[in-house]
Amino acid sequence: MASHIVGYPRIGPKRELKFALESFWDGKTSAKELQDVASDLRLSIWKQMADAGIKYIPSNTFSYYDQVLDTTAMLGAVPSRYGWSGGGEIGLDIYFSMARGNASVPAMEMTKWFDTNYHYIVPELGPDVEFSYASHKAVQEYKEAKALGVDTVPVLVGPVSYLLLSKPAKGVGKLFSLLSLIDKILPVYKEVVAELKAAGASWIQFDEPTLVMDLDSKKLCAFTHAYKELELSVSGLNVLIETYFADIPIEAYKTVTALKGVTAIGFDLVRGSKTLDLIRNGFPSGKYLFAGVVDGRNIWANDLDASLSTLQALEGTVGKDKLVVSTSCSLLHTAVDLVNETKLDKELKSWLAFAAQKLLEVNALAKTLSGLKDEAFFSANAAALASRRSSPRVINEPVQKAAAAVKSSDHRRATNVSSRLESQQRKLNLPVLPTTTIGSFPQTPELRKVRREYKANIISEEEYVKAIKKEIEEVVKLQEELDIDVLVHGEPERNDMVEYFGEQLSGFAFTKNGWVQSYGSRCVKPPIIYGDVGRPKAMTVFWSMLAQSMTKRPMKGMLTGPVTILNWSFVRDDQPRSETCYQIALAIKNEVQDLEKAGINIIQIDEAALREGLPLRKSEQAFYLDWAVQSFRITNCEVQDTTQIHTHMCYSNFNDIIHSIIDMDADVITIENSRSDEKLLSVFREGVKYGAGIGPGVYDIHSPRIPSSLEICDRIKKMVSVLETNVLWINPDCGLKTRKYSEVKPALTNMVGAAKITRMLLANCQLKSGY
Predict the structure, then answer these.
(1) What are φ and ψ of residue 111, in 5° steps?
(2) CA-CA distance, 639 to 651, in Å (whole number)?
(3) CA 564 remoteness from chain centre
(4) What gap in Å lies between CA 768 and CA 315, rounded to an integer?
C-alpha cells in the first residue's frame, strides 16, 4: 500500500525562509545565501518525508513566493512593464518585481487561493503574450532531490487551472477568453515534461483544483483537449491529476476520469465527502485513486479508525493495488511540526497533528492497509480522540445558550444607513473625502522586542505600558502632522489581528511556532479554537481610551470581526462553523458596547476574511453568507445611530458578493482596490447602488513602492466618477504593519495631498475637466 503527500509547508519549522527572504530584500544578504537557505529547507523536507515512509514525495512545491508565480515564470509570461526581454532564465530581480513591485512599477495583483488564507499572484495574460520556457525550476528541484537519493513526483500547476486563475491584462477586453491561450502554453508544458523524463522522473503531478468549481461545458472541454494534446508527451510517465478543497461536481468527475494518458486521480475526501459516492458508483479500471483522507487544512489529529474504514470501502471499488493514501490537499495550509510546541499542555497537544505528524498518519494508514498495523499508534490516536470528546474544557453551557438564542432575530440596526450617516456627520463634522488608515502602523524591531520581553517577564507591566503608550503618542502625532482626518492608534500592542483577540477569549489555545504562510514572507500563527468562545473581560478599551485622550480628532476603536477570527483560526471540527462564529460574534458585541460607553465614536470591525470563507460551489454559498453576514450584524446591532461602524476587507474578489456586503449594513467599508487594478469600481459602473460610506484603497501597501500624489489623484478621480463624494473615503488598501516608516510617511503624505487637491477641484467644480 502506497502513501502520498500533495505538498508540504515551505517556510521552515521556525520561519527560516521568511527571514532569509527579508534579509535578501533588505540587501543584507546575497542571492547565493538566500538560495542556500532554500536548498537546505528542500533537502530537509524530502528527507523527512522519506524517513516517514512516504512513497510518492512531491518536488517543485517549494517557492520563494508563490507556486502560481513560479508557473508564470516557467511560461515566460512576464508583463512588459517589468522590462524582461526574454531569451533566458528569469532571475530573482524580475521574479520579485512581479511579486512585490519596485521603485518604478507596481506589483501584479494578489488574491486569495480558493477559500484559503494563502494568496497567489494573478497572471496577466492577453492574445499578444509570447510564451517561452523561461524557468527550469521544476527540473532543477527534481534533480536536486534525486542527487539526495529521493525519487520525487514533480508538481506543476495544471495548464487549464493556470489559465482559469489568470486575468486579462490591462487593455485586454473583458470578453477575451483566457482558455484561447491553451495551445500557446502547452508547448512549454511539453518541454518541461520532456526534460523531466530525460532526468529520470517516473511520475508527474498536475494540480487542477479548478475542477471542483462550477465549470461550464466549454471549460470542461478544455481539460479534455489539454490532456489529449499532452498525451504523447507524457507517454512513459505516470500522470497524476490532483484536485482539492471541495467535492468534485459530477460532470467534472466524468471529465477527469475519462482523460487520456492519465494514470491517477487525487480527490479531497475530507472537504469532498460527497465525492465518495461518485467513486463508489464508478471509477475507471486500471487507474490509481489517490485518496485524500488526512486533512491538509486543519490541525486536529485524524480519526484513524474512520479513515481506515473509508479506505477499506474504497479498496472494493478500485482494488487494493490501485489505492494510495494521501492528504486532502497540500499541507502548506497547516503548521509545520508539533515537536516545536513546548508550551501546549499535554492533553491539548494530544488532540493535534501538524504537517510532520500528518506524514506519520498517512504512512500509518498505508501500512495498516498492507497488513502492518501499528497497534500502539492507533491506540494512542483513539485515546486522544476520546479525551477531546469528553474534556470539560470544551463546553461552556452559558455561551452555548446565548449563541442558540441569537438565531431568532436578524440583528439589524433600527435606523437605515443614510439616516445614521447624517447623525454621525453632525457629530463628527468630517470634511468631504475624509482620510484615514486601516489600523496598523509599522511594527518596528524595537516594538517587537518590547512585546517579546514583556511576554517573557523580562520587563514589568508598568514598563510595557509606558513603552506602548509612547509608541501610540508617536503614531497619533504623526497622523496629526500628516493631517489625517480619522486616526488610529497603530496597534503597537498587537502581535496579530486574530491572535491578539484570541489570547483574551476563552476556548482558544496558542502555539509558539505554528506558523502558516499567507503570501511571500508573510506568515500568520492561527489560534486554535478548541472549545466554546466567551469574553471574560474587555480587550481593547484601555488602549482606545488612551489613544483618544491624546487627540481631539476621532480615534477609531479597532476590532477584528467574528467571521475573520473564525476563518483565520484553526477551528474546532466537532460542531458547525456557524455555531462557533455566533459565539465569537457575541464576544465582539460585548467589546463594541464597552467601547461605545467609553466614548469611542467610530468602531472598525474588520472582516478581511469574509470572502475567503465563501464555499467554492455556488449551491453552498447562500447558507454561508447568511450566517456570516448575520454574525457581523450581531456585533453592532445595538449601538446608537451616532456611533459609526466601519469594516474592512482585502485581497479577494468581492464583486460577486457585493449585495451581501451591502447587507452587512456597516456605515463605512474600506476595501482593497488599487492592487487589483480597481476591479471593485466596475461593480458600481454596472449599476450597483451603494448608499453607505466606502473607501476603495488608493495604494497597495504590500509593495515597497511609494505612489505619487498624481497617481493617487487619478485613482480618486475614477472613484468620484462612479461614487457620490459624500460617501467616499480616502485610505490605503490595507494596514501598514508590514511596511517601514520610510515608506509609510511619504505614501501617506501623498495620499492626504491627493485628497486635498481633489477637494479643491470639487469645490471649484473643476473635477470633470481633469487634472
Answers:
(1) -145, 170
(2) 29
(3) 11
(4) 69
Residues 6 or more apart in contact with residue 153 via CB below 8 angstroms? 4, 56, 57, 58, 59, 201, 203, 204, 205, 240
Instruction: Compute CA distances 13 → 19, 35, 42, 387, whole Å.
Output: 12, 17, 12, 27
At 767 the pLDDT is: 56
Q: What residue type is assigned to position 316 of the chain?
A: G
Task: Record the cell numbers describing residue 297, joined without a space.
Answer: 487544512
The three three-digit cell numbers of residue 9, written as one number: 509547508
Average pLDDT over residues 184-202: 98
Give 206's contacts (C-beta < 8 A, 6+ positions apart).
155, 156, 157, 158, 159, 239, 240, 241, 242
Percent of the chain topping pLDDT 70: 98
> Are 35 and 88 contacting, i.e. CB atoms less than 8 angstroms apart?
no
On the question of pLDDT at 769 being above 50, the answer is: no
Catalytic residue IDs: 702
pLDDT of residue 674 exceeding 80: no
The predicted pLDDT at position 204 comes to: 98
Collapsing DSSP to helix, strand or coil, 697 comes out as coil
Select from 444, 495, 357, 295 the least CA-distant residue to 13. Answer: 357
Distance CA 22, CA 34 (A): 10
Task: Mark out the alpha helices in 409-555 (DSSP H runs).
Answer: 417-428, 445-455, 461-482, 499-502, 541-548
Identify the pLDDT of residue 677.
Answer: 64
Note the helical H segments in 248-354: 250-257, 275-280, 304-318, 346-350
Per-residue model confidence as pLDDT tens digits over 595-653: 999 999 999 999 999 998 999 999 999 999 999 999 999 999 999 999 999 999 875 66
- The candidate with the shortest Cα–Cα distance to 252, out of 205, 214, 291, 293, is 214
Q: Rg (Cα) of the chain, in Å, rounded?
A: 26
Separation between Cα atoms, residue 664 and residue 674, nearest integer Å: 23
- Cβ–Cβ under 8 Å, residues 110 and 702: yes
Cell, residue 323: 489505492
Per-residue pLDDT reduced to its tens digit, 433-453:
999 999 999 999 999 999 999
Percent of the chain exceeding pLDDT 90 equals 88
**Rounded to 5 degrees, what angle do the CA atoms 187, 188, 194 make?**
90
Q: Whole-angstrom Cα distance, residue 543 to residue 523? A: 26
